[in-house]
Structure prediction request, 200 residues.
Amino acid sequence: MITFQINDMQVKAREGWTVLETARQYAIDIPTLCYHESVSPSGACRLCMVELKEGSWSKLVASCIYPVAEGLKVFTETERVNNVRRWVLEMLVAAVPASPEVRALARRYGVTDTRFPVHNPEEDCTVCGLCSRVCEEVVGLSAIATVDRGVHKKVGAPFMRPTDVCVACGCCVTVCPTGAMQKIFDSVRGLPKMPLTQLA
Ligand code: SF4
Ligand code: SF4
Ligand code: FES
Prediction:
């Protein structure tokens, strides 16, 4: 076991765990958006930032991808952490203004407005990739792809054509943190196959 500190509390973790996994074992609250315990972390949203400190040295790291180490000193509620958290939430509110889930998360941390430009008031997908990771890693399929780059990046069926690879299990809808997958789902799933008896 590895022993280290989170917010002045001594904690124990298994080799290979991340800081976030350990914090969750001890019910220490760290907000996340692109993380789900069932799939590999991507470190995409930066909402789970925490501060590592040692004397006058300190740095911010994404807790969902930062591995635990003996003697680490982790802080989850410092001024630097709270600033970066609010900054990330403001960016998210601007990026996905149509997501009630993200607005509720932002309000929880005191963010009710954003200084960043809103390009699409209808947008609710952060392109966090959680849906495609769960489809691939948990369901064992590749029914969701990420297409385009930069601001045009979006998720959908490969080549943006409905695919009968999808078995309509609903896992992607369940893990989506913004509610966006509910709308995208029909364009991914494609039409259910017609039973042979009805084709005669
Ligand atoms: S649909 Fe949801 S889970 Fe998929 S990329 Fe968009 S926000 Fe993430
Ligand atoms: S519903 Fe379809 S796209 Fe979504 S996880 Fe299941 S198989 Fe993949
Ligand atoms: S939850 Fe860690 S980067 Fe998104």
In short: Helices lie at 19-25, 79-95, 100-108, 130-139, 171-175, 181-189, 196-199. The first strand starts at residue 2 and ends at 6. The pocket of iron/sulfur cluster (ligand 1) is lined by residues 125-131, 155, 176, 178, 180-181, 184 (CB under 6 Å). The mean pLDDT is 92.
